Amino acid sequence: WRLLTGSLPRGGKAWAAQVETVNQKAAAGLACGIDSAALLAAVRAQPRVVWPDAPSSKWDERRRHIIERCLDLNSSARWSDMREVVREFEVLESDFLLEESREQTVQERKKQASKVLVLQTTVLGLFTAFVLSTAYAFLTLRRARDAETVISQKDAILEQETGARDARIVELTGERDAALKAKATADANLRHAQGGVDKFLTQLLQTPTGNELEVEFSKTQLNEALDFCNASLPALEADPALGVERLRAYGNIGRIHLQLRQHTQALAFLQKAREQSAALLKEQPSSPQAALHHQWFGRYSLLLSDLQQRRGDRALSLSLLQDATRHLTEGLAADPKNRLALNECARAWMEYGLRNMQNGDLAEAGKALSRVGDVLDPKVLGDKPLPDESFLLARAKFAKGLVQRDSGHTQDALDTLIEAVTEMGRLVMGSSPRNQEQALLLSEAYTELSELIGKTIGSKEAREAHDQAVPILLELNRLHPAWGDVKYLLARNYGAISLLERDLGNNNDALKKKQDAIELINEVLADEPDNLRYAALQARLRGEYAELMSDLGKPTAALPILTQAVESLEGLLGQDPGARLTPERKEQEIQLAQMHGVLGHTLQTLKKTSEAKTAFTSAVQRWEKLSALIPGDDIIQQGLTWSKERLGKLK
């Protein structure tokens, strides 16, 4: 009973209570024992045993009856010995097996009856199918005989039609072959014409001009080419299949606008050309022309990068340059003998190096500039570099000198820059007619070199370098009065020369040069008001001009100009207050701190002590911020010391 139910059949609660009492007394150290009389009374109080649940079957009920009789309190009612119990269980088991055997016999009979029924149904189905098949075969045979008669009649007709068809095929094949031959000839003529147009346009865009007549002639050619490309554009845009031709047209129109200094129109068409080349790369990644598509995408990314740099969007410009270097390198790998692709790839790496240098990533800039020499290596070219390629190599060397300058290697930078600018000058002066783009780049190199010489060697040597740049820029300005970069560099040179004249004590000459510089930068800003580089130079020139006027004893006239310059430069730097401190940004921050100091000096001269304290306080704050970012810089420490002394005296 306890194995089946987990409890005692009688007196379970009394037993548990007795055990608990004994345990409590034992824990208290008292003598204890089981109360047998109480247990016996509890057992007798329950003559019948009660199962905790109902029996699950009649066999379970019979088993329980055997156990209950074993537990009967009346000894006469219990089994006499275990032999009777075993015999009763054997009877129970034999009854169970007998009934189970009867049930299995019934189930087997049902299965056999089902099989007989299935077999009868199958036989009947097969017989029906045989009858239907015989009828179908008879009908099919009859139809086949009728069809043979029809087929024989149609075979004769088919033979006649086949002969006529073969004759027509031969005729159409001849016409097709003639059409394919004509198409091949037309495609060859079209490619030849496109190549001729591209070659003519490239020569037109790169043709140097040496005098006013040639300049006007070049503009006339460019405008005629622009009209020609615009005339064909509507038809190309209307046909989706002419993607390559449409890309050429967009690119040519954009490059012509770029050559005409029409930057807004150039940006729009070059963006379309880039998008079209991206679509070709996506649609035809395995095309035989994939290398050319990569070159197109890289070329227009490079040109767009220049335009975005002019607009001041340096992040987008750098991203476009990364695309340009990657795709031009991929295009060059597939077409390594393409000289134009080599030049464009080299220029892209050089511009990428310059952008990284301007952003302060000097290590990345050095790697990129080294790639220029790898691309234009004579072993790769298979010949000596052309003059344009030699000029590009000289520019890359000059850029490496600028990287050395920003890295603090001043003497190495001077040696590299002088060597590079000498080579650039030889190439420009040796060309006939002179390439004006290269002349502009040469003047820019002279300008950079003169500014470095002025800081490291002396004003006399710096003036000599400026005297090399100014005549070139004056001639370019005479030929191209609308060329903004020429006026920008000329204003930059005039501003630097003005400072040299001031240091020599020639204040009036310095003032005149500064006025000329401000007039030039005002002209280009009127045409390109969004150009941040022009705006920063204007603010700097105004500040230096106001400082000159203050030194000449005209603080009243200098004050509004200086205030405007400070506000302008603060506005430019405030457009991106979280920008990283690149070399250019550092120079502008130093210039603004100096302007605050000059403003304080001017206000103090005019007896405006309160405003002067505010200006000197701003100067000290800006110098301290720069000092924290660039500890140990001599210029910053000198500016900070001077501003603190002036502020201390005022206080």
Tell me what you see in this structure.
- This protein has 6 domains: 69 residues, no CATH class; 96 residues, no CATH class; 129 residues, Serine Threonine Protein Phosphatase 5, Tetratricopeptide repeat (Alpha Horseshoe), CATH 1.25.40; 79 residues; 96 residues, Serine Threonine Protein Phosphatase 5, Tetratricopeptide repeat (Alpha Horseshoe); 115 residues, Serine Threonine Protein Phosphatase 5, Tetratricopeptide repeat (Alpha Horseshoe).
- The protein is mainly α and 651 residues long.
- The protein starts with a helix and ends with a helix.
- About 2% of the residues have low confidence.
| Number of separate structural domains | 6
Structural class: mainly alpha
Low confidence ranges = 206-217
> What is the helix tally?
24
CATH topology of the largest domain: Serine Threonine Protein Phosphatase 5, Tetratricopeptide repeat
Rg, Cα atoms, Å: 51 Å
The CATH architecture of the largest domain comes to Alpha Horseshoe
Which CATH first-tier class of the largest domain would you pick?
A: Mainly Alpha
Reported for the largest beta sheet, the result is: none
Amount of beta strand: under 5%
- The average pLDDT is 86
Secondary-structure element pattern, one letter each: HHHHHHHHHHHHHHHHHHHHHHHH
Number of strands: 0
Which geometry do the CA atoms define?
flat
Helix content: over 70%
Q: Please, what is the CATH homologous superfamily of the largest domain?
A: Tetratricopeptide repeat domain
Give the N-terminus to C-terminus distance in angstroms: 108 Å
